[in-house]
Amino acid sequence: MKYVSTRNKNIFCGAAEAIVAGIAPDGGLYTPEDIPLFKDGDIANLCALSYPERAAFIMSLYLEDFSARELSSFAASAYKAESFDTTRIIELKKMSDRDYLLELWHGPTAAFKDMALQILPHLLTASLEKTKEKRTACILVATSGDTGKAALEGFADVDHTKIVVFYPSDGVSAVQKLQMVSQTGKNVGVCAVNGNFDDAQNGVKAIFADEKIRDRLNENSMLLSSANSINWGRLVPQIVYYVSAYCELVNRGEIKSGEAVNICVPTGNFGNILAAYFAFRMGLPVGRFICASNQNDVLAEFFTDTGYYNANRPFYNTASPSMDILVSSNLERLLFYVSGGNSDLVAGCMKNLKDKGEYMVWGDARKTLKSLFSGGSASEEDSAKTIRQIYDGCGILCDPHTAVAVHVANKYREETSDQTKTIIASTASPFKFCKSVLEALGIKTGNDGPELFEVLKNKTGQQPPESLQRLKSAEVRFTGSVSKSNMGDALFELLDI
Length: 497
Ligand SMILES: *Cc1c(COP(=O)(O)O)cnc(C)c1O
Known about the structure:
Elements: E1 3-5, E2 8-13, H1 15-21, E3 30-32, H2 42-47, H3 51-62, H4 68-78, E4 91-94, E5 99-103, H5 114-117, H6 120-130, E6 136-142, H7 146-155, E7 161-168, H8 174-181, E8 188-194, H9 197-209, H10 211-219, E9 222-226, H11 232-251, E10 261-266, H12 271-282, E11 286-293, H13 298-306, E12 308-310, H14 331-338, H15 343-356, E13 358-360, H16 363-372, E14 373-377, H17 380-394, H18 400-416, E15 422-426, H19 434-440, H20 452-460, H21 466-469, E16 481-483, H22 487-495
Parallel strand pairs: 5-15, 6-7, 6-9, 7-8, 8-16, 10-11, 10-15, 11-14
Antiparallel strand pairs: 1-2, 1-3, 4-5, 12-13
Helix pairs in contact: 1-6, 3-4, 3-11, 11-12, 17-18, 17-19, 19-20
This protein binds pyridoxal-5'-phosphate.
Pyridoxal-5'-phosphate is lined by residues 111, 113, 146, 229, 266-272, 322-323, 401, 427-428.
């Protein structure tokens, strides 16, 4: 299978090379030129398998450089009971006759990013070997909160890798920050960037594009790689849980085999919902994708019939920081597919985005988008109200990101009277966002942080995840911060070169 750059189909490579590189040399994203299809009976067969077995099978359709044995062993060590607090790996909770919450945060860092970042280190180290790469992979991450910790946890003390994480100083929750700055491991580094997530992400993209930085790393026998969802190795494991959730619904008799479901995802960088789109293109029966935004509603506007992507707008820090994003990287991959693989069209859009902060999608591509995707947004008030409603209504506690999705899914149903059963992605443990959740439940709190775990637990009777409990006694290791123009120097310092 060929992985091509979204901006130029003449730039291509195999799966292992795409995973090592993270991003294509022209700044495009490596993506499969053709999406593999499930054969008749595949989905039925998957229904009978465990989560790691489903993962191995689905990944084998994309990662031809890897043997079935390798993928089975990677999946078995990534998705195991010691790392996840449920043997099922994901949980599917029924909220109403038609809505199911797909809880993706039962892994070691209590966010859905674990679903991919527990397995990416296996894929990446194997890819280094397969491509005969002798240098150390330096994984550079810009995080809106959850990717950073999940990547640190996945790569800590993994041979032949180093990992450096940049997080926005004003844009992560107290618990998210503490999770990162207390990370243990010999090969890890963490630094704050004065600014928001887009600043951190742009800074990281600039480092990737900087020849001088690459040269200096090369002299020290290092190369850059990425654990952000621009890396194909992040996306492919995410396809698995949508197929898996569908199988669970069939197994439980909630839907008939072949029945279409809708999928609603709280969206930031567009990785998670894009994985659902891949599952659909492979043959999973999906009616509509509902893309949920918070107050930073650039995607909601794009999908609400306009085809107009406009990043020139105020940036808001919200209670769902992992969705506080104006430049949504993975939308580029969707544009590639809905335009029939037209990399010139994608390159044009991305140039306009870079030069003017906007682009417009026309014609058939726009029609295809409209036929599959709906968009909507939730204000801070909507999201807080939804946390309370779900708790009062069905005793389920959800975090502010998930609440955004539930609100948008409800609004979509009201507006369209589409009665299709809906899988709503639940992306983080509510205990990562205690302050917001408590306030939504009507409880005034003081400072945010692990001291609020007890308060939320006492109020709701729910247990904080073990890994978060441990933060109470965690030691802070990383206190540095830099301006967005000095991230390159900070990188060298953290790598000690
Ligand atoms: C990363 C994240 C999101 C957004 O996911 P994308 O793949 O970037 O769209 C939503 N919710 C939480 C809790 C996250 O950590």
